[in-house]
Write a structure and sequence with these properties.
Layout: H1 3-33, H2 36-69, H3 71-74, H4 110-118, E1 121-126, H5 132-141, E2 149-154, E3 164-165, H6 175-190, E4 196-201, E5 204-206, H7 208-215, E6 224-227, E7 229-230, E8 238-239, E9 245-248, H8 249-260, H9 271-281, E10 285-286, H10 303-307, H11 317-321, E11 344-346, H12 349-357
Parallel strand pairs: 1-2, 1-4, 2-3, 6-10
Antiparallel strand pairs: 4-9, 5-11, 6-9, 7-8
Helix pairs in contact: 5-12, 6-8, 6-9
Organism: Micrurus surinamensis (Surinam coral snake)
Enzyme class: transferase
Catalytic activity: an N-acetyl-alpha-D-galactosaminyl derivative + UDP-alpha-D-galactose = a beta-D-galactosyl-(1->3)-N-acetyl-alpha-D-galactosaminyl derivative + UDP + H(+)
């Protein structure tokens, strides 16, 4: 080989020996300097760091799983903050709601027709300009036809739909003020045309025949109101806004008068709770709307949330809010009561159409 090449290859071999010896001496020196106590501290610190890191990973994985499992619950949660503009909730296009009407032609409607005359219900539906074609029109085409009187309350008037313009702002923060103004409007213009006055949202389905059956056992001249009764914050409980609620004639009169004599105020933005506190202060009773078997007749969620056992986790707020012990129901079978005996369901526009076409209880 040439001198240059051999010199280049051999140079590291000659210089590496002292460097390796020097490194070994330094390592031995560090080992001698390190006491057992300092090594224990180092080991503990290193182990703790690994432990915290693993805990962080596990917590994140669990949080991700929760987010994947619970959106179906929170989506229609009356205590949540979902947007009214969610396109997944909207049914597009026009439906033929009477397509299956022939299968009910032989039903005995005498009881329902008799109750229609004796138990007069005015229904008013809380809606907004943005929901008329996506939600409110399906209410109008289905269960609202069974009310003795139906009104759609909005922030602005729409003569074509039609809606009553309350001249309020839209949004959750204005729900209670909108509710107050709606009941004031009803009291002023339609007080003598009904015995009971129901407030419902534009994503609610109501079985009016079932509701009339429930109300037929009560006197509308008594100060009472019905709905899904929750227990926190108010001694006698209050009715869930998501499931809708019904005021007797006397309850409506007292509610409207309470804002004239300052017994109630509209300072709160939490509609159902604020209304419940007002009702208690003016001695309007929170009625028991359960059926003879102790099952609820007003429901704040869509049917599958109530029908499928375990669908709502036991740590979900719903179980603690119920005034009466919540009874889980199941898919209808020979030995299981189904949801069709119940009166009120909280649903989106698409499910309202499905409910009506499946031949659910009239209304």
């Amino acid at each position: 080989c040439s001198r240059g090449l051999c010199s280049f290859r051999s140079a590291p071999e000659r210089s590496s020996r002292p460097s390796a010896l020097l490194l070994r001496k330094r390592l031995l020196g560090i080992k001698e300097m390190a006491s057992p106590k300092s090594l224990n501290i180092l080991t503990f610190t290193f182990g703790s760091a690994i432990g915290f890191f693993l805990c962080y990973l596990l917590l994140n994985l669990r949080l991700d799983e929760q987010i994947k499992v619970e959106p179906h619950i929170l989506h229609n949660d009356p205590h949540g903050h979902h947007s009214d503009n969610d396109e997944n909730n909207n049914l597009k296009g026009q439906m033929n709601f009477n397509a299956d009407a022939g299968q009910h032609k032989d039903e005995n409607k005498n009881i329902a027709e008799d109750l229609y005359q004796k138990v007069r219900i005015l229904c008013w539906v809380m809606t907004g300009p943005q929901n008329l074609e996506t939600k409110a029109k399906h209410v109008k085409a289905t269960w609202a036809q069974h009310c003795n009187k139906i009104l759609f309350m909005s922030s602005e008037e729409n003569k074509n739909f039609p809606t009553v313009g309350l001249e309020t702002k839209e949004g959750r923060d204005h729900l209670y003020w909108k509710t107050i103004k709606a009941f004031q409007y009803v009291h002023e213009h339609y007080f003598d045309e009904a015995d009971w006055f129901m407030k419902a949202d534009d994503d609610t389905y109501v079985a009016l025949d079932n509701l009339r059956w429930l109300l037929s056992k009560h006197n509308p001249e008594k100060p009472i109101y019905f709905g899904r009764r929750f227990k926190p914050f108010v001694k006698q409980g209050y009715m869930s806004g998501g499931a809708g609620y019904v005021l007797s004639k006397e309850a409506l009169k007292r509610f409207v008068d309470a804002f004239k004599n300052n017994k109630c105020t509209h300072s709160s933005s939490i509609e159902d709770l604020a209304l419940g506190k007002c009702m208690e202060s003016i001695n309007v009773e929170a009625g028991d709307s359960r059926d003879t078997s102790g099952k609820e007749t007003f429901h704040p969620f869509v049917p599958e949330h109530h029908l499928i056992k375990g669908y709502l986790p036991k740590n979900f707020w719903y179980w603690n809010y119920n005034y009466y012990p919540a009874v889980e129901v199941c898919i209808p079978t020979n030995d299981c009561n189904g949801i069709w005996e119940y009166g009120i369901l909280w649903k989106d526009g698409k499910e309202t159409v499905i409910q009506e076409r499946k031949g659910a209880p009239s209304g």
